[in-house]
UniProtKB/TrEMBL annotation:
Pfam families: bPH_2. The chain crosses the membrane at residues 27-49, 55-75. It comes from Nocardia jinanensis. Signal peptide: none annotated. Keywords: Membrane, Transmembrane, Transmembrane helix. The keyword Nucleus does not apply. Residues 80-154 form the YdbS-like PH domain. The lineage of its organism: Bacteria, Bacillati, Actinomycetota, Actinomycetes, Mycobacteriales. This is Membrane protein. It comes from the Bacteria. InterPro entries: YdbS-like_PH. The keyword Membrane applies.
Length: 170
């Protein structure tokens, strides 16, 4: 079954069926590792400019290395288990987050625009994010980190479905 088929009738309480690309874990790992580089740079500066506190520096360094390793290994896998999405003839469903999780349902009749976004790392991994703008004050629904081909199919399908649902989109 492909992400552009509708495996179930809409049920607002059911979890969306589809996961992002498995390469999303790679992207999240790289993003987390890059963010830890800032912490390591600050730690290195402390070591260079304050040589009198080696025992504290070693203790902090051990804590930072453990925290970096834990978040770099655990968080991408956790996020991958949580992130889901689905498009049916009636609505767009998404669930995202890891510590704080958000579930969104956007009725097709409220869809105003459908866009794709690809940052530099996403382009390197051939990933895309589909953004479905609706008439909701809660903002757009994001279907993150799909394979580029799946994202293109999803945009085409959403466009076709939205064209059949001549709702007011307000």
């Amino acid at each position: 079954m492909s992400p552009d088929s509708s495996p179930r009738s809409p049920n607002l309480l059911a979890d969306p069926s589809w996961r992002p690309s498995p390469r999303a874990k790679t992207l999240w790992t790289v993003q987390i590792a890059l963010s830890w580089l800032v912490v390591f740079a600050v730690l290195l500066g402390w070591v260079v400019f304050d040589p009198g506190r080696r025992s504290w520096q070693v203790a902090v360094a051990v804590g930072v290395v453990l925290a970096a390793a834990l978040t770099t290994v655990v968080v991408p896998r956790w996020r991958y288990r949580v992130h889901r999405w689905e498009v049916t003839d009636e609505a767009v469903y998404s669930r995202s987050g890891w510590l704080t999780q958000e579930s969104r349902v956007a009725p097709i009749s409220r869809v105003q625009t459908v866009d794709t976004e690809r940052g530099p790392l996403e382009r390197m991994l051939d990933l895309s994010t589909v953004t479905v703008t609706t008439a909701s004050s809660a903002g757009a629904v994001h279907i993150s980190l799909l394979d580029r081909a799946v994202a293109e199919q999803t945009v085409t399908r959403l466009t076709e479905i939205a064209a059949r649902h001549r709702g007011d989109a307000t």
